[in-house]
Design a protein that fits this description.
about 220 residues, alpha+beta, Umud Fragment, subunit A, 10-stranded mixed beta sheet, two-stranded antiparallel sheet, 12 strands, transcription regulation, HTH cro/C1-type domain-containing protein, DNA binding, transcription, DNA-binding
Length: about 220
């Protein structure tokens, strides 16, 4: 993969410093990846696919075209999912529903603000707007994530991206994070894309709602 990473840089005319900045890592870290002394993380692969329009199949295997002919509207975090030719994904305003928990408990009683129609999506239960910059540059505030509810922490895929509702002193905190295993028993580690946000250890018992992020939609404003 290190050879393909160098090919991407050459094709786009990027220096090591410029690509490292896009990935949110240091130039020395990128140099180690390109020389085979370190591996490319899943979060950085996602950035390369989304931000640089690189074909994920080519990135993994070298097969096919390096870049998509047309940038996809949505970026899939799990390419092994079976996709549906068409579906209507409800878009919710979680502020209007008092958070994720009421929405997940009784979705039928919550009225969506709109519906999203994108062909060939994995099956999704709903979509919400992202708030905050903890997953920047992969996700920015105002982007949309489409999700599939998960019944419990035992059903997650470690290292993937999830939408969570966490109880902090009786208040609900809704966030999008990578979930990794923790060395502390009964806890999980929540990891941000943004290097300025520190990792957080959270007791599993404080996670009130959980959903797997299936796709994301980048919202760009034109001025």
């Amino acid at each position: 993969m290190r050879e393909r990473l160098r090919l991407i840089r050459k094709e786009l005319g990027l220096t090591q410093e410029a690509l490292a900045q896009k990935l949110g890592i240091g130039k020395s870290a990128l140099s180690m990846i390109e020389t085979g002394r370190a591996s490319l993380s899943e979060r950085n692969k996602n950035i390369i696919v989304q931000e640089l329009n690189v074909n994920p199949e080519w990135l993994e295997t070298g097969q096919g075209q390096m870049f998509f002919e047309q940038r996809p509207e949505a970026v899939f975090t799990n390419r092994t999912d079976r996709r549906l030719p068409t579906q209507s994904v409800p878009l919710y305003n979680i502020e209007g529903t008092a958070g994720l928990v009421p929405l997940f408990l009784d979705r039928e009683s919550v009225r969506p603000v709109d519906y999203i129609h994108i062909p060939n999506l994995p099956r999704c239960d709903g979509a919400i707007y992202v708030v905050g910059d903890s997953m920047y540059p992969l996700l920015k505030s105002g982007d949309i994530v489409l999700y599939k509810q998960v019944s419990g922490i035992e059903n997650i895929f470690w290292g993937d991206m999830y939408l969570l509702s966490i109880d902090i002193d009786g208040e609900e905190y809704v966030t999008v994070k990578y979930i990794q295993k923790s060395e502390n028993e009964g806890c999980v580690k929540l990891v941000s894309q943004n290097p300025h946000h520190a990792d957080k250890e959270v007791p599993v018992e404080r996670i009130r709602a959980l959903a797997f992020v299936k796709a994301s939609i980048r919202m760009n404003s034109i001025r």
